[in-house]
Amino acid sequence: MADRHIHIISFDIPFPANYGGVIDVFYKIRALYESGIKIHLHCFEYHREPAEELEKLCFRVCYYPRETGFRAFFSQKPYIVSGRRSEELLKNLQNDDYPILFEGLHSCYYLNERSLEKRFKIYRESNIEHHYYFHLFKAEKNLWKKLFFLSESWRLKHFQKNLRHANLMLTVSREDTAYLSRHFPGHSITFLPSFHREENVNSLTGKGSYILYHGNLSVPENLIAAEFLIREVMNETMPELVIAGMSPPKNLFRLAALNPDVRIVPDPTDEEMFHLIRNAQVNVMVTFQTTGLKLKLLHALFNGRFCLVNPPMLAGTDLEKICEVAQDPFSIKKRIKELFEMEFTPEMIHKRQKLLSGIYSNQKNCKNFLELLPLF
Fold first, then answer.
1. How far apart are CA 64 and CA 253, in angstroms?
2. What does the pLDDT profile of the chain (376 residues) look like in tens digits?
3. Which residue of 34, 46, 82, 84 sits 20 to 30 Å from the alpha carbon of 107, by its own alpha carbon?
4. Model pTM above 0.85
5. Are 235 and 333 in contact (CB under 8 A)?
């Protein structure tokens, strides 16, 4: 049988796989490699170094500089899109007739390129981006950043129409599937869960001694969630809350310092984060927007004990059967106290493994992905 090839355009260098977007890209690459697919990977480079690990998995890896600054900012296209263009990339895509996978709206500059009109093009959705940027606008406190997020949201909404040029759209949640199906009736749109690092549940039985909230703390959405937990949940006697993640701002340290039961762990290594997730009694995750899938939820379900979430965290994920759900501060506090009286059991691990291996198996989802593509 002839080799099967595919182009993947990544918005960033997807290794190390240590934040939401690149986790899906990297583990999809690994699953495709293990299925025998020859991957032509195209990465936009702006704050990460070329990664030897990618060379091991891909037939070819090409790097292109991401354009930043005024030219990209004042483009009619969204800033996150206009800076990810390259004549060299376009020439590389034109050299053959392999399918092209565009990772995120960020990488879709050439989705409507006339010279690629006859190619099979796949759009991998990670968020409804203009919704995501509008939530950033509402969450941000800095005036100039607020204006940027609002402008970017408007441009992303208008750029979204270019998705009609994709032959296939792959979504990360059922809610996003429904949204794109409403806006692009008659197009091929399929729910394909995010790829991730785990295949088996590695949770510990027994009990932990603290609550954990984790996430990139430079992202306004995550910072608001952390501040909410400190102000609204930790305002009475509670078990220790550990907040861990990249780039926590100074004001979060100041807020945490007011409560002796709150501890900040800044910039933990992957190993430290794994240890924190695994040894917590409760991984608490709250969000105030329903865009995409929160990959940190999957990470906690595969490695942690009890996962307590608010309803927006579960939107379109099919994970409500293996999570604890609470809506408001009172019910979150109540459920945390109840969970600290319970042990995490082998039966709970088995239930979690059964559900996750059915929906969120990289191996199964890679097979499903390849069955959606034409023979190539």
1. 37
2. 579 999 999 999 999 998 878 999 999 999 999 999 999 999 999 889 999 999 999 999 999 999 887 766 677 899 999 999 999 999 999 999 999 999 999 999 999 999 999 999 999 999 899 999 998 898 888 899 999 999 999 999 999 999 999 999 999 988 899 999 999 999 999 999 999 998 899 999 999 999 999 998 988 889 999 999 999 999 999 999 999 999 999 999 999 999 999 999 999 998 999 999 999 999 999 988 776 667 889 999 999 999 999 998 988 788 999 999 999 999 999 999 999 999 999 999 999 999 999 889 999 999 999 999 986 5
3. 34
4. yes
5. no
Phi-psi region of 186 (alpha: psi -120 to 50; beta: other; left: phi over 0): left
What is the set of domains in the chain, with CATH numbers?
5-197+361-372 (3.40.50.2000), 210-358 (3.40.50.2000)
Q: Can you read off the two tokens belonging to residue 4?
A: 């099967």
